[in-house]
Specification:
Layout: E1 9-16, H1 22-38, E2 42-50, H2 62-76, E3 85-90, H3 96-106, E4 109-112, H4 113-124, H5 128-142, H6 146-153, H7 172-209, E5 212-218, H8 224-232, E6 249-252, E7 261-265, H9 275-280, H10 286-290, E8 293-299, H11 305-318, E9 326-331, H12 339-352, E10 357-358, H13 364-379, E11 383-390, H14 397-403, E12 405-411, E13 415-422, H15 424-434
Parallel strand pairs: 1-2, 1-3, 3-4, 5-7, 5-8, 8-9, 9-10
Antiparallel strand pairs: 6-7, 11-13, 12-13
Helix pairs in contact: 1-4, 4-5, 5-7
């Protein structure tokens, strides 16, 4: 019988700077606790303090470091009733020396926010491109930390002797940094080759099938995967975890429409995501660049949604997708109190964002309204026409129904008169094929 592994325990620690509001601070802490949960940890305590700046030596002030050390020691005692603390999660990216000093003082491992996110990305990356991007980000994060690791290793780990009378030789740190630079360059070349291949595949697919495309963007846990499942009827992974998946999923909109629409999910945004990570994961957002329409999914129940909305817009601008048309979709309205509170929030959102759509992905009627809005976007440039399909040309019936929406069909002794709606090129091509020959 397999032995169940014990859940590792952790604490969260954070400094609130004067520029950060209480709402923003609490939201960030809640998200870090969710990140810890995604890694499989149970957070048993949160330590916070207000400071004008981070402590240069160890991030937290001396008193707070001592408080955490006592808590860790109490949980690590042999007669303690609770499990020992395995890690302290810090809600900022801290320097290598700050992390080393904090670990020494509190007596257990320290992981800053960036390290936590990288670890989650590393576990969840599935495709070759996503794995390469994760490795680049991890190597970039580790490079400046090698010196601190060398300090911990002691004098024997710092120097390799030279050969051939060339002096003292390279240190372990210098060699490792050079290896990291070489590996990053190799991975970047692989990613560039994969990007060319993906662009070629998308171009061929769109030319062959004439597909319209929609990309879901927004913060992780805003409900994008739930919407994806509702739109497409596919078994997309849905978990109450941040970054449940990193790889882009593409499915056809269901029920299918004319034109046929492809829907793609993208990696979720997160609060305080370091800019270097955004750059490293740029290609996971490439579907947003190629999409004709973006669905910007926002958690209507999150009190900090306005800042999330701004950050998403900023990142989309950075990757060149700022001009792509979008629909703001406020999801999870069902989680905003009772029916009266939901009506009040809907009215507020519609007044503030007149073109937005407010829904719950759990309500089929509201999903149907959003589906209708998506189809309407792609049908706005379609044309209507009448095509006469003689009985002798019935072989074209399948092509008509696959490339156009048939609005009406009337038959007589000579054939069928169809009123259709479709893309101008498709309708003109069919009309040309059906034109009587003299």
């Amino acid at each position: 019988m397999p032995v169940e592994e014990e859940t590792p325990y952790a604490v969260v620690a954070a400094v609130q700077l004067p520029s950060v509001s209480d709402i923003e601070f609490e939201a960030s802490l809640a998200e870090l606790r969710d990140l810890a949960k995604t890694l499989g940890y149970k957070v048993v305590r949160t330590f916070t303090q207000k400071r004008s700046a981070f402590d240069k030596a160890a991030y937290l002030g001396i008193g707070k470091r001592e408080e955490i050390r006592r808590f860790v020691n109490e949980h690590g005692a042999a007669d303690a009733d609770t499990s020992r603390i395995d890690v302290v999660f810090v809600d900022h990216e801290i320097s290598p020396s700050q992390a080393r000093h904090l670990e020494i003082e509190v007596g257990c491992e320290v992981m800053d926010r960036t390290m936590v996110i990288l670890d989650i990305f590393h576990r969840n990356a599935r495709s070759r491109a996503a794995r390469a991007q994760v490795e680049i980000a991890r190597l970039g994060y580790m490079a400046p930390r090698l010196r601190e690791m060398a300090k911990l290793a002691g004098p024997q780990g710092r120097q390799r002797s030279g050969t051939g009378g060339r002096g003292a030789g390279e240190s372990h740190t210098e060699l490792d940094k050079r290896k990291i630079r070489d590996r990053i360059a190799e991975l970047q070349q692989e990613i560039a080759a994969m990007e060319v291949e993906r662009k070629t595949q998308r171009s061929r697919r769109q030319q062959r099938q004439g597909l319209a495309s929609v990309a879901l963007v927004g913060y992780t846990n805003a409900g994008k995967s739930t919407l994806m499942r509702a739109f497409t009827g596919s078994e997309v992974l849905i978990e109450d975890k941040l970054f449940a998946t990193l790889d882009t999923t593409v499915r056809a909109l269901h029920p299918e429409s004319v034109p046929r629409v492809l829907v793609s999910d993208t990696v979720g945004f997160i609060k305080n995501l370091p800019h270097g990570l955004v750059a490293s994961f740029k290609s996971t957002l490439e579907e947003a660049l190629d999409a004709a329409l973006l669905l910007h999914v926002i958690d209507a129940a999150d009190p900090g949604f306005e800042r999330q909305l701004e950050v998403t817009d900023e990142v989309l601008d950075e990757i060149g997708a700022g001009a792509v048309p979008r629909i703001r979709v406020f999801n999870k309205i069902d989680q905003v109190g009772d029916a009266a509170a939901q009506l009040e929030r809907k009215a507020m959102l519609r007044a503030q964002y007149p073109d937005c759509i407010v829904i719950s992905a759990q309500r089929n009627d509201e999903i149907a309204l959003l589906h209708k809005a998506i189809v309407a976007f792609f049908q706005k440039d379609l044309v209507e026409a009448e095509l006469f399909l003689p009985w002798s040309a019935q072989k074209l019936r399948g092509e008509i129904y696959s490339s156009c929406e048939v609005l009406e069909e009337r038959t007589d002794g000579e054939g069928a008169l169809l009123r259709v709606r479709g893309e101008r090129e498709a309708v003109q091509g069919l009309a040309e094929q059906l034109r009587p020959t003299r």
